[in-house]
Design a protein that fits this description.
Order of helices and strands: HHEEEEHHEHEHEHHEHEHEHEHEE
Shape: globular
CATH superfamily: Aldolase class I
Helix content: 40-55%
Radius of gyration: 19 Å
Largest sheet: 8 strands, parallel, barrel
CATH class: Alpha Beta
Strand order of the largest sheet: 4-5-6-7-8-9-10-11
CATH architecture: Alpha-Beta Barrel
Length: 345
């Protein structure tokens, strides 16, 4: 991974510094690019909110060989991790590798490790076209995410996703107001509940709504028929001053846990971070920028190496906190600094 990161730093020069800790400080305001919007505070809050959590060490147990497998919307995954949808290699990552090679690296590397990658969408058609083509080439192994366009385009892209062999698709409603799209003359907008319900009822795909940060909108996602939600502030790239995902997640999970699948996306960097998100109520996590670095620096092999590393870290963290499988991860894993005792469910 050191070599992969070194190559990525050279290839992404001017777009991403591949910092030792990817926390949004060095790249604040660099949108387009890999930074966070404005002061970068929402990006930084994602990382800081996870770092503020501590874990309880437990070693009197029989969880010596934790099972990291999960089932997500009918898919068997080796790890509770999906690669988040990121596209636009030319204007976000420097363009030293092609969009085709990038998407193949993310989706192919994830498939090879037994999990799923997601593809992005954008104003240039080649972003979504490349994603659909790669999903088709990998026999449906990927989840395409589509921006909240006006309905004719949104329906058209959902149909193309189905035609590519996908049976799950996402709508990243947190892209509403995205700067890069506005600069390209292609603004997107929020969707009221009745329109979302109609959209979801008119596609056979299982749909994920990405960008849920409050309990009331989580309940609305259940009401309109979403199959899953992603608790996400779009990597801090759409609204400055938003809370970190790990801050928002417990209340969201408290409102809809068990009614809908819950993903969390924001600031996850390590296997320990994955465990923290699971303990806070997520069923699985999405990871964005680290996958981009791995893909740009090492293509499929880079993605596989990154996944191997965080899988090993997750297993170690589960052993040291007494979690025999993902289902057994609970709030009891987290240390409560105020009370000086375990947090309970």
């Amino acid at each position: 991974m050191k070599e992969i990161r070194k190559i990525a730093r050279e290839r992404m020069k001017g777009y991403c510094r591949v910092c030792p800790v990817c926390d949004g400080r060095a790249c604040a305001g660099e949108v387009p690019g890999m930074g966070g919007l404005g002061t970068g505070s929402s990006f930084m809050a994602n990382v800081e909110a996870l770092a503020a959590r501590r874990l309880n060490i437990r070693l009197i147990h029989d969880a010596a060989e934790p099972d990291t497998r999960i089932q997500f919307l009918g898919k068997d995954l080796a790890l509770p991790v999906l690669a988040a949808p990121i596209g636009g290699v030319s204007f976000n990552m420097g363009g030293e590798i092609s969009e085709e090679d990038y998407i193949d690296a993310v989706l192919g590397g994830c498939r090879d490790h037994g999990t799923l990658g997601c593809t992005g969408d954008g104003a240039p058609d080649f972003i979504h076209e490349t994603g659909f083509a790669t999903i088709r080439a990998l026999n449906g192994a990927g989840i395409p995410f589509i921006k909240p366009w006006e309905e004719p385009e949104l329906y058209h892209k959902l149909e193309k996703a189905e035609g590519a062999g996908a049976d799950i698709a996402g709508i990243d409603i947190d892209a509403a107001g995205l700067v890069t799209l506005r600069l390209m003359g292609r603004p997107v907008s929020p969707k009221p509940p009745e329109r979302l319900r109609e959209i979801l009822e008119n596609t056979p795909l299982k749909c994920i709504l990405k960008g849920i940060m409050t309990p009331d909108e989580a309940r609305l996602a259940v009401d309109v028929g979403a199959a899953a939600i992603v608790v996400s502030n779009h990597g801090g790239r759409v609204l400055d001053g938003a809370p970190g995902v790990a801050e928002a997640l417990p209340a969201v999970a408290g409102a809809v846990k068990g009614q809908i699948a819950i993903l969390a996306d924001g600031g996850v960097r390590t296997g320990v971070d994955i465990l923290k998100m699971l303990a806070l109520g997520a069923d699985a996590v999405m990871i964005g920028r680290p996958f981009s670095v791995a893909a740009v620096g090492g293509l499929r092999e880079g993605v596989k190496k990154y996944l191997e590393g965080i899988a090993s870290e997750l297993v170690q963290a589960m052993i040291l906190t007494g979690c025999k499988d993902v289902a057994s991860v609970s709030r009891a894993v987290l240390y409560d600094p105020a009370a000086g005792k375990d947090e309970t469910r």
